[in-house]
Amino acid sequence: MPDNPTRHTIMLPQRQGYHVLLSVWEVADAAKGFYQIIDLDFTG
């Protein structure tokens, strides 16, 4: 069983402006994929 909560760390590129991040993952014992879309607004 995975940790609860499960945490993932990713490196984001140096960007500016509006971007959309699409995450896709599969569970080993499931035949389906799962998706999460996040809106990002990089400033700086």
Shape: elongated
- Amino- and carboxy-terminal Cα gap: 40 Å
**Category from helices, strands and their pairing:** mainly beta
Q: Which whole number gives the mean pLDDT?
A: 87
Largest sheet: 2 strands, antiparallel
Number of domains: 1
Query: Could you estimate the helical fraction of the residues in percent?
Result: under 10%
- Read across the widest sheet, the strand sequence of neighbours is 1-2
As residue ranges, the low-confidence spans are none
**Strand segment tally:** 2
Secondary-structure element order, N to C? EE
Rg, rounded, reads: 14 Å
Percentage of residues in DSSP E strands? over 45%
In DSSP terms (H or I, runs of 4 or more residues), the helix count works out at 0
What is the structure about, briefly put?
With 44 residues, this protein is mainly β.
Short descriptors:
elongated, 2 strands, two-stranded antiparallel ribbon, 45% strand, 0% helix, 44 residues, mainly beta
How would you describe what is shown here?
It is built from no helices and two strands. It has a two-stranded antiparallel ribbon with strand order 1-2. It is an all-beta fold.
Describe the SSE topology.
Elements: E1 17-26, E2 33-42
Antiparallel strand pairs: 1-2
